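Technical note accompanying the year-one report. For the benefit of new consortium partners, we illustrate the data format agreed upon in the data management plan: each record pairs a sequence with a structure-token string. No post-processing was applied to the example shown here.
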Amino acid sequence: TEVDFAEIAAAGLNWIRLPVPYWAVETWPGEPFLAKTAWNYVLLALQWARKYGLRVYLELHTAPGSQNGYNHSGREGPINFLNGPMGVANADRTFGYIRVLAEFISQNQYEDVVQMFGVINEPLLGIIGRDQLTRFYLQSHDMLREITGIGKGAYMVIHDGFQGTGSWADFLPGSQRIILDTHPYVAFGGGLDAPLDSWPPAACRGFQTNASQTTFGITITGEFSAAINDCGEWIKGVNVNASFSNCTPWNDWPNWTQDMKDGVKQFVMAEMDAMHVPGWFFWTWKVRKSTIPSVKRC
């Protein structure tokens, strides 16, 4: 709501990351999405961002066919974006949505608010393939600069495909206004079931992006969290249990011990320190009953 945008600005934060599903632009017959609704909220978000002095990283969060097989891609299961029998057709359809969004944010009333544009969220490179994904990024870059002109318009953001920032060294040399996005988490795959004082060093070792600033260029952390495990309601999906061994004390956040509070705080401070150049986006501002993925509740 507008109150959230006001509170984000009041907290001293200066950007928001705005995930936009492809069905905000268009739905096809038979797709299980609410048609002609999400776009209204995109417009409201941009209006509120301008009102409260926030800049926007707008990102296409889903692709037809699913770019990673996760629930947040719009469909859990097989990956049929740049992969499978409909992979090319779904990618072509996605290019259409990228063009629509790029032309929209390049209008005078939005170009000073939306200053970063992510062409697709978290494509799973290990399944899609490097050649396929890099061609997609190159075509997206050329399309975007055809619309904005060279040296102008929103920065284009690409995700590292969960391969790490080092694998993108020297990618697209000579490209215009491009940013690499990485999403480092410790919450998944078992979490940090380790002493509290070991958490900050883990963040410092694993989350730094300094090397990528030299080998690639501008590198941001588009998602990170205070979460050191996958406890919390629906973190991994509706009715999907956490893989962490003991969620009971972590879900009971009103009764956290001071050591638990201090441990999470020091972990987050270490993450922010490791990622402060050139910046980060915390995932997320607030989320239902879960605690540590929520800036507001933390």
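Partners are asked to follow this layout when depositing records. The chain has a mean pLDDT of 92.
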